[in-house]
Structures
1.
Amino acid sequence: MMKHAAVMTAVAIFVTSACSDLPGTSFKPGNDRMPTPIETVTAFSAAISKDNGRTAIRRWFTPETVWVNEGVATTRGIEEAIAFLDRPGRSPEIAAVHFDMLAIAVDGNSVLTERLDRFVRADGSEVAAIKLMGIFEVDGDHIVAWRDYADVNAGAKIARKRE
């Protein structure tokens, strides 16, 4: 029953935060309290679609953050993560990635997400969408680890859609 209450609280925070002034979080700069792990991940997820994710990574990653795209790549730190986003061979028609949060739960400083990541063109039309599970480890208001698990053939599916 207690875990059910924690999940319901997390959902309530997520829904409430979607309507706040700072995109994706009820945490306000200048507020004395530290955002909760779920608020941090929600804010990061809301910001990832802007500037090809660079601004979000610079804001919420640390120089030691490990980002694992299981079966695709692993990065450490801000600069490696941004280099991965800007890598050669990435589809030039992908202007942004939008995270559609399907489910979110928290266990201590770990935030688990089920998402639909939508890859879109500059005009907003969809190139592809991938359903995946992710886990974020949060320390204070920073993401120190992020692991995503998806169909490892998803990149090939996106490439085929371009042809």
2.
Amino acid sequence: MKSWHDFSIEEPELAQVGQALLFRSRIGLAFLATLRKDGAPRLHPVSLIISDGHLYVLIPASSPKCADLLRDGRYAIQAFPSPGEENEEFYLAGRAERIQDEEIRRAVIWDTSIIAEEDEVMFEMLLDRAMYTKLGDYGTPDERPVHRKWRAASS
């Protein structure tokens, strides 16, 4: 698993386009897929934060997606669909790691100027893979998805 910083060093162009698709405003917006206790997928919108080269989410402790990540940290993130006809997609997958260090939490909140509730649990979203997709020959009979993929090297 890699941090956002490590990913951006290994694949700078892919990280740049991914960040642009995830962060169309100051806070990133995406769909977060987690695994329920029974193994079924759960999908929720989530706000993302990048601070000091790390990708984070803050999730209320009472949220089902928080329980999912605490039990089984595997996740997938899909950027919200592009507005208009950009026909671009960005996807991440990996493992969420709970951040319990209050100094890190305070630094992230200060760095990003976000408003965080006391009961929100902070997770770093460590990356195992990323994929950018754009439709080639968009709007023609030859339209097809063109993928650019990255996978974390095994340590």
